[in-house]
Amino acid sequence: ESELSVDYYKTSCPNFQNIIRDTVTNKQISSPTTAAATLRLFFHDCMVDGCDASVLISSNAFNKAERDGDINHALPGDAFDVVVRAKTALELSCPKIVSCADILAQVTRDLVIMVGGPFYTVHLGRKDGLISKASHAEESLPRTNMTMDQMLDLFKLRGFTAREFVALMGGHTIGFSHCKEFADRLYHFSKTTPTDPDFNPKYAAALKTFCANYTKDSTMSAFNDVLTPGKFDNMYYQNLPRGLGLLITDSLLFKDPRTKPFVEIYAQDQSAFFSDFSHAMEKLSLLDIKTGSQGEVRNRCDQFNSIKA
Ligand code: HEM
Ligand SMILES: [Ca+2]
Ligand SMILES: [Ca+2]
């Protein structure tokens, strides 16, 4: 971490910032779901063996890679695509200099800003990891069926306080979730009540109609933040007390006394949310950084430089 710096590419790739910004702008304008897709991709990278682009590796005959773990199957193509586009542009300008892990970190930050979110500093100089295993993804990522104890433990293991955890969850102010991720809350909540009573009844009714066909059409998905789905703001927290949280793990944030106070702060005060989110993202961006011989600068983001059999 101490080997990282803000101006790491200042002499080796002076156009780094501009190339990333141009790539991000073009991609987000043509595919507005890219920002949310990439924020989730980055979160999934950093939680599993650190921010080392391990999530970008493709499987081969010898290795089932992280992105092919069940939990990563829905990671959207647009997020991988924006990284590949930036890498391609950077290789033309400064070949073999910029790591995929740095590209993903910087692209995410610029996309968050583009959809209205706060600035935070991205330190640079990460090396790309040499391991990518589907099993690691299954072990390290949160799931919607976790209890609050399990979620707090998982984030604590990565060094995050309850407050930082709640701030990071604000990522769900953009993007969407597939119906299967919250279908149990709508149709099979318990023996006596098919629908989770924590849902706002009108919202639940609309979702039930919308998702009715989800087993046949697995692409059906709903906005995480029903009111401002494309804007990075604090609406996610304002939604929770009104029963407009989409995933059961979202609604738990307002039920548990350990997290509820922070939801209330962020719902009232967007600048408090932005300041905590920035801080937590900076921290996320520094998880288990590889430097020196712990990693490499990949030639292609989806392959290690030497294929190990
Ligand atoms: C308890 C923790 C978390 C759980 C259980 C969780 C779960 C999920 C699930 C199930 C989806 C829907 C995926 C799909 O159907 O395609 C989703 C989407 C998303 N998550 Fe999370 N998540 C968590 C934390 C976070 C954090 C900390 C961030 C970012 C800082 C984040 C960012 C996102 C984004 C941006 C999307 C939308 C992706 C898109 O539109 O393509 N999540 N999350
Ligand atoms: Ca990783
Ligand atoms: Ca929003």
From TrEMBL:
EC number(s) reported in the record: 1.11.1.7
Keyword Thylakoid tagged: no
**How is the co-factor bound, per the entry?**
Binds 2 calcium ions per subunit. Binds 1 heme b (iron(II)-protoporphyrin IX) group per subunit.
Cite the Plant heme peroxidase family profile domain residue spans from the record. 3-305
Name the domain of life: Eukaryota
User: Sorted alphabetically, which keywords does the UniProt record give?
Assistant: Calcium, Disulfide bond, Heme, Hydrogen peroxide, Iron, Metal-binding, Oxidoreductase, Peroxidase, Secreted, Signal
What does the record give as cofactor? Ca(2+); heme b
| Manganese listed as a keyword | no
- Say which enzyme class the record assigns: oxidoreductase
Catalytic reactions of this protein? 2 a phenolic donor + H2O2 = 2 a phenolic radical donor + 2 H2O
Location(s) in or outside the cell: Secreted
What is the recorded function of this protein according to its Swiss-Prot or TrEMBL entry? Answer: Removal of H(2)O(2), oxidation of toxic reductants, biosynthesis and degradation of lignin, suberization, auxin catabolism, response to environmental stresses such as wounding, pathogen attack and oxidative stress. These functions might be dependent on each isozyme/isoform in each plant tissue.
Annotated family:
Belongs to the peroxidase family. Classical plant (class III) peroxidase subfamily.
Which named protein is this? Peroxidase
This protein's species is: Hevea brasiliensis (Para rubber tree)
